[in-house]
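Let us practice reading a record.
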Amino acid sequence: MRSVRITVSTKYLPILLWVFVGAVAAAIPFGVLIGDPVLRQLLAPFSLHIANEKAIYSPAAYFVLLTACYLLERKMPVNPRDFLSASFRYDLLWYFGNVCFNLAFLGYFALWLNAFYQHYLSFLSIGGVGDWHPMARFALGVLLTDFTRWLSHLIRHKVPAFWAFHAVHHSQTELNIFTDARVHPVDTMVSTAIRFLPMMMFGNPVPVIMAWLVFETVYPKFYHANVRINLGPLRYLLVTPQSHRVHHGLDRIYRDKNFGFTFSVWDRLFGTQFADDTVYPATGIEGKAFPHESGTTPRSQLRSFARQLIYPFRSIAQPGVSSA
């Protein structure tokens, strides 16, 4: 009896892998909907640090985002390059580093902030919000969260000590969908602390805001992508790949513009929106002192990662060591 050998051309392997990843991403929310106990047990350890809805639906949202950005970067890139470029792989390292930091520390930091607020600042809380219509509370939560993100971003640019840490995010010269994860842990903590007070003053967000949190997770990856698009009329409402690229612009005329996180309305309201919505500038930061990544080997990237984590402390301790 002759054996049958099934062979698959190597050119189809990436497609098959992508289909498999998509199937897994879709299986997670499906498994939760049918009440799969094994899946719930696997997600349980993350519940302290990540909202359940976020853990359930983020993989599917990431899959859709990656697929869309891959297609858009092939059709309309700002700078044509390999989707899985060296810059992409390096920022992916930052992504996993920040995931580890968030899981290990950020949940406890948020609990500490909450305890501090309840003990010392609870008199600032604004009552009566709980009686509002759910959609009104949702709108308030979304607008308040986005405004405080805009404000924290502005402060981290204007205060030199905070900028030393935020400069790490601006150091990328080849923006990609994981550049939003190139954030120093101290920068994350500063941003969280600045946004925390006004959010607590208006009470806890309603459950439906969890869906918004998933959107907030993936949308910044879209507007960091290497895509030549400004979303047409939507640019008057939303941050776009074009407008955020301006914010990352190498020239100083760009850096103090377009601070928005999701909505562009705050920049338009407070006069920090860059007027030209057609320019796609080179990105990065000035100065030769910043330890930009060099090399593509895992060892060289880990070395650059460590140097960039240390750099802000050196910059503050030795003002002459600065990139801005």
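A brief commentary: The chain has two domains: 1-76, 85-317.
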